[in-house]
């Protein structure tokens, strides 16, 4: 029997205060307003004054509304019944399915003991040469897609989700456009992946506080599945919206901003989510692919900047392609030594030649004379962009490596590639 | 003992306000009782009858009225044999043991002893009954791995003592009493092999501080030759994300010519600690023939661990460093990243509603950074031996821009600056230390006039390169073009060093001296190269040979063969020395 309080003392932004006893920090409450019920959690205790953050926002809350404390922190149901379902950021169904209340687990739990972690060792295949060959994705990696707005980042996420060899997918959407939400749903449905997917979706029209819950709720569920042996891929789009929600809330709470309005703990907040990526020895794993849109294509903007300091590399999406230079998978060397003997050498060699192509392009645009070598590079660059970089290309790693040799042999003599003789002998296509 | 108690009256994030019944002191440790858990916290402000505590754990579940026990002790670490090879969190909890107890996750409120209590150490007394001793004097020694671990009179024994009893040589645990000392008032003090010391108070048991004049060899050419670090000195590595700060510290932690390395992973990725953790036990230290782990300690408070403990972790690390320095050892502390530590301070300051300074960092940021680096130093101990603590910290400036409070405050106090550049790391030129922006106030292993000339040639080469971008190769004179090739040559064969190559990853001072001289001969030579095409071909050939040379074992057959070929190539084209280059200096 929990007590119900019916006198709200103050309402400011999304935060209300009530006078109450015996309340714990982080505890959940249910606020009943004329618009319906909303969850709220305790964000500050000061004597008997309890401050609560209302998930559906402060708008429409009246001082006479009821607040009922639930005696536990934010929870979510965990079972196989979640699969194929779609929920809001606070865990309510948004697909007309039944509400789930069995086996409730807490969200935002403790972090993994570093001594229990293992060195990542498995590649995740995506069918995209720019990832598989040049910046291999590794199981348990945390990696964002840095993208200018307007780029097809959600299409890219959906494609990776469809093709990645994982047991299940959790999609956390923050500030998602409704169309994008439907796009994900349709794509996964068509691909037959819906039954191994769980959605936690906050759309741009939903209350802002709920967007803050999306990563935690998604990752809490992912963690439980991983502990049960599942390889889970968590997609978080868009973490810039998540950060902006944090900024908005911090400002309404009059916290001192540190950098362009963002709160001083932006780094810690982002890190505590991304660090949930893990490979449990003897059980499953969590791999996190996020989207970080860069306002004004500016990598030094606080959100991409702090993200870069946290994640294990980034995929840089620009002009509809994964850029080979801004992109980096910091874990690739853990796995690309064991795929095929030509993988690393081909990766380095082709990128060096592509860099040389860009230099020739620059010279050309400045009107300098093109040497024979420049001409060869120009031919190479065009083919490389079309056959490797284009996002519609979809081939397994081995096919992509073979294709790499073909492209090289089409444009250069073996010596010109700078690749080692033994590899050339073995892999150079004979005509 | 009148230990105070209190009750929680407010919770805001990881800050808890407590009404206190009795005396409390600043930085005192307290435990908040939450159900069956006891959460560790530290007093960070006192306001009339209320104490404000930063909690080293997540604060969910704390309620008004929860009781708080104060301990009268400041946040401290346990000192004694058995620290080496361990992996601690920021509060000196041994993480592998914690894993045995709690499994995959860091359950809050579980605190374990830092030192093994059941292990027996072979103690050899160094004093006899009747001897007069004071704090930090050696009572005996035990072998800890490859070191003689000194069992000292605890540093918080402020009297003069007479040895009343001392155990005979034999095996003892850290809890056994090894000596009984009598103070000037006739009280007996029991001495065991371990004691505690507050982390925020420097250990200053030495006769004098000495100038850091001896180079600390890192086996990185760019550092030892151009921007050296001294034993007992300080240096910082600022750089944008992904520029190579962590890799640089990892190779330094392997190769640095010091006795002990302490790695403080402060608010960074857990995965990076795992690499060290799994690799070091397998790696053999060429100097000792033992596993590298035997000379290493890891303090790790990674980014998702509680922020208050992150603030403490750098102090834990430096206190352990000072302790081993007291044994006449050279200790290197590598902190990655000091920006995360500064941010932890900023978060706390924000909760305390202090008046913010630049970028919301607290006003005391600069003095706190300065006093942290001040704990480095080379000292002469009371027994005449020397010990040192060297501190190297990475800095992660927002947006990679060095004009920000943490980088600027750090640059004011350190002795060397290894600035990483995005441009160089994007071009995969590792280590990405910028050869022109970086500096060091320490003396290196090579003659400085010569290294400065080499640096000025890089600068000149760089200027020509920039010019060429505008006027093209056609518009550049052959002479200028050769200067460009020379600068590029230094960069490719000397500045860049492949951290993943079995030979090139660590280069002895002897070898640095040797290969620098040959390179110096090339870049200061007047060369008979008449066309740009010829110059380019010649330099590219030479470069290829030099890279192979760098990759071959010191004084091996292939090393000697390649050297002969290189010398022959030089002899063929060198017509004299370019005096104009020798006269050049880098404009600071
Ligand atoms: N010396 C090196 N040799 C080869 N590759 C390197 C070297 N240094 C860095 N790299 C590459 O750059 C990547 C990032 O390096 P590192 O983790 O040291 O960056 P960082 O500066 O610590 O970044 P952050 O601030 O995000 O922690 C590495 O994963 C590696 O791929
Ligand atoms: Mg790093």
UniProtKB/TrEMBL annotation, chain A:
Note the Pfam families from the entry: ATP-synt_ab (PF00006), ATP-synt_ab_N (PF02874), ATP-synt_VA_C (PF22919)
Domain ATPase F1/V1/A1 complex alpha/beta subunit nucleotide-binding intervals: 127-319
Spell out the Gene3D superfamilies in the cross-references: 3.40.50.12240
Q: Which residues cross the membrane?
A: none
MF (Gene Ontology)? ATP binding; proton-transporting ATP synthase activity, rotational mechanism
Q: Which InterPro entries match?
A: ATP-synt_VA_C (IPR055190), ATPase_F1/V1/A1_a/bsu_N (IPR004100), ATPase_F1/V1/A1_a/bsu_nucl-bd (IPR000194), P-loop_NTPase (IPR027417), V-ATPase_su_B/beta (IPR022879)
- The segment(s) forming the ATPase F1/V1/A1 complex alpha/beta subunit N-terminal domain are 9-71
Which keywords belong to this entry? Answer: ATP synthesis, Hydrogen ion transport, Ion transport, Transport
- State the superkingdom: Bacteria
Q: Which GO terms describe its biological process?
A: proton motive force-driven plasma membrane ATP synthesis
List each copy of the ATP synthase A/B type C-terminal domain by range: 335-427
What function does this protein fulfil?
Produces ATP from ADP in the presence of a proton gradient across the membrane. The V-type beta chain is a regulatory subunit.
PANTHER family reported in the protein's UniProt record: V-TYPE PROTON ATPASE SUBUNIT B
Which protein family is it in?
A: Belongs to the ATPase alpha/beta chains family.
- UniProt-recorded name of the protein: V-type ATP synthase beta chain
Q: Which organism is it from?
A: Candidatus Thalassospirochaeta sargassi
Name of the encoding gene: atpB
From TrEMBL, chain B:
Q: Which organism is it from?
A: Candidatus Thalassospirochaeta sargassi
The ATPase F1/V1/A1 complex alpha/beta subunit N-terminal domain, residue ranges: 8-71
Q: Which gene encodes it?
A: atpA
Give the first-level EC class, as a single word: translocase
Residues reported to bind ATP? 239-246
Q: Which residues form the ATP synthase A/B type C-terminal domain?
A: 456-521
Q: Which UniProt keywords apply?
A: ATP synthesis, ATP-binding, Hydrogen ion transport, Ion transport, Nucleotide-binding, Translocase, Transport
What function does this protein fulfil?
Produces ATP from ADP in the presence of a proton gradient across the membrane. The V-type alpha chain is a catalytic subunit.
- For this protein, the Enzyme Commission number is 7.1.2.2
Query: Coiled-coil stretches, from where to where?
Result: none
Per its record, how is this protein called by name?
V-type ATP synthase alpha chain
GO terms, molecular function: ATP binding; proton-transporting ATP synthase activity, rotational mechanism; proton-transporting ATPase activity, rotational mechanism
Record lineage? Bacteria, Pseudomonadati, Spirochaetota, Spirochaetia, Spirochaetales
ATPsynthase alpha/beta subunit barrel-sandwich domain location: 114-200
């Amino acid at each position: 029997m929990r007590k119900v309080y019916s006198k709200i003392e103050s309402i400011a932004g999304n935060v209300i205060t009530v006078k109450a006893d015996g309340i714990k920090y982080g505890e959940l409450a249910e606020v009943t307003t004329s618009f319906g019920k909303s969850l709220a959690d305790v964000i500050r205790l000061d004597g008997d004054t309890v401050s609560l953050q209302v998930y559906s926002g402060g708008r429409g809350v009246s001082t006479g509304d009821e607040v009922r404390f639930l005696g536990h922190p934010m929870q979510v149901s965990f079972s196989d019944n979640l699969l194929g379902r779609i929920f809001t950021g606070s865990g309510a169904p948004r697909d007309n399915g039944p509400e789930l209340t069995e086996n409730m687990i807490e969200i935002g739990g403790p972090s993994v003991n570093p001594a229990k972690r293992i060195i990542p060792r498995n590649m995740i295949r995506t069918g995209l040469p720019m990832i598989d060959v040049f910046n291999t994705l590794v199981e348990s990696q945390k990696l964002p897609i840095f993208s200018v707005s307007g780029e097809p980042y959600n299409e890219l996420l959906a494609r990776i989700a469809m093709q990645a060899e994982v047991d299940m997918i959790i999609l956390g959407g923050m500030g998602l456009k409704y169309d994008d939400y439907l796009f994900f749903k349709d794509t996964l449905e068509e691909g037959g992946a819906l039954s191994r997917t769980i959605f936690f979706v906050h759309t741009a029209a939903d209350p802002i506080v709920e967007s803050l819950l999306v990563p935690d709720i998604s990752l809490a569920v992912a963690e439980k599945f991983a502990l049960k042996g599942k390889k889970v891929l968590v997609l978080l789009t868009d973490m810039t919206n998540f950060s902006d929600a944090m900024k908005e809330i911090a400002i309404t709470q009059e916290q001192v901003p540190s950098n362009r309005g963002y709160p001083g703990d932006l780094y810690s907040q982002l890190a505590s989510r991304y660090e949930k990526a893990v490979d449990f020895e003897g059980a499953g794993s969590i791999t996190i692919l996020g989207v970080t849109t860069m306002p004004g294509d500016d990598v030094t903007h606080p959100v991409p900047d702090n993200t870069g300091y946290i994640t294990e590399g980034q995929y840089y999406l620009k002009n509809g392609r994964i850029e080979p230079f801004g992109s980096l998978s910091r874990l690739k060397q853990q796995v690309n030594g064991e795929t095929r003997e030509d993988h690393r050498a081909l990766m380095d060699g082709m990128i060096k030649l592509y860099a040389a192509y860009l230099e020739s392009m620059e010279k050309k645009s400045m009107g300098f004379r093109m040497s024979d070598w420049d001409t060869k590079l120009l031919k190479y660059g065009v083919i490389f962009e079309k056959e490797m970089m284009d996002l519609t290309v979809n081939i397994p790693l081995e096919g992509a490596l073979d294709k790499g040799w073909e492209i090289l042999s089409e444009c250069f003599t073996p010596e010109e590639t700078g690749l080692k003789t033994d590899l050339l002998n073995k892999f150079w296509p004979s005509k | 003992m009148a230990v105070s108690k209190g009750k929680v009256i407010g919770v805001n994030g990881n800050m808890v306000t407590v009404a206190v019944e009795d005396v409390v002191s600043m930085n005192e440790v307290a435990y908040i009782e939450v159900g069956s858990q006891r959460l560790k916290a530290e007093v960070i402000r006192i306001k009339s009858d209320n104490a404000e505590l930063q909690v080293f754990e997540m604060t969910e579940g704390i309620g008004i009225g929860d009781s708080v026990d104060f301990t009268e002790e400041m946040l401290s670490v346990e000192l004694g044999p058995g620290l080496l090879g361990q992996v601690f969190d920021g509060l000196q909890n041994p993480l592998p043991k914690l894993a045995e107890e709690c499994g995959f996750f860091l359950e809050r409120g579980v605190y374990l002893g830092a030192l093994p209590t059941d292990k027996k150490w072979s103690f050899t007394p160094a004093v006899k009954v009747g001897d007069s001793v004071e704090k930090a004097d050696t009572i005996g020694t035990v072998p800890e791995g490859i070191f003689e671990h000194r069992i000292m009179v605890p540093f918080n024994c402020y009297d003069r003592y007479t040895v009343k009893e001392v155990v005979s040589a034999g095996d003892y645990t850290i809890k056994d009493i090894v000596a009984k000392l009598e103070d000037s008032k006739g009280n007996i003090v029991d001495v065991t092999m371990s004691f505690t010391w507050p982390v925020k108070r420097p250990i200053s048991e030495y006769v004098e501080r000495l100038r850091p004049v001896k180079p600390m060899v890192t086996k990185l050419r760019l550092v030892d030759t151009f921007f050296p670090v001294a034993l007992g000195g300080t240096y910082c590595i600022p750089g944008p994300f992904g520029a190579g700060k962590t890799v640089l510290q990892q190779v330094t932690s392997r190769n640095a010519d010091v006795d002990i390395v302490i790695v403080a992973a402060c608010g960074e990725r857990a995965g990076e600690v795992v690499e060290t953790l799994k690799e070091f036990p397998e790696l053999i230290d060429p100097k000792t023939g033992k596993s590298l782990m035997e000379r290493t300690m890891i303090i790790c408070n990674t980014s998702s661990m509680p922020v208050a403990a992150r603030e403490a972790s750098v102090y834990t690390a430096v206190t352990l460093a000072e302790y081993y320095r007291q044994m006449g050892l050279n200790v290197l502390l590598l902190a990655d990243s000091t920006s995360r530590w500064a941010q932890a301070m900023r978060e706390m300051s924000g909760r305390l509603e202090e008046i913010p300074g630049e970028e919301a960092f607290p006003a005391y940021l600069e003095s706190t950074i300065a006093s942290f680096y001040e704990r480095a130093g080379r000292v002469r101990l009371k027994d005449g031996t020397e010990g040192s603590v060297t501190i190297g910290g990475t800095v992660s400036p927002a947006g990679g821009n060095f004009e920000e409070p943490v980088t600027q405050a750090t640059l004011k106090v350190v002795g060397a600056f290894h600035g990483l550049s995005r441009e160089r790391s994007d071009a995969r030129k590792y280590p990405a230390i910028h050869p022109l922006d970086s500096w060091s106030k320490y003396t290196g292993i090579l003659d400085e006039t010569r290294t400065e000339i080499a640096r000025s040639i890089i600068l000149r080469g760089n200027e020509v390169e920039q010019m060429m971008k505008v006027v093209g190769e056609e518009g550049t004179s052959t002479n200028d073009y050769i200067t460009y090739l020379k600068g590029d040559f230094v960069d490719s064969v000397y500045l860049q060093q492949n951290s993943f190559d079995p030979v090139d990853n660590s280069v002895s001072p002897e070898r640095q001296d040797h290969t620098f001289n040959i390179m110096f001969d090339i870049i200061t030579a007047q060369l008979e190269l008449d066309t740009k095409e010829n110059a380019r071909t010649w330099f590219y050939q030479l470069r290829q040979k030099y890279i192979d040379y760098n990759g071959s074992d010191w004084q091996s057959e292939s090393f000697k063969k390649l050297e002969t070929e290189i010398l022959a190539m030089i002899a063929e084209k060198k017509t004299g020395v370019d005096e104009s280059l020798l006269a050049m200096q880098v404009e600071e």
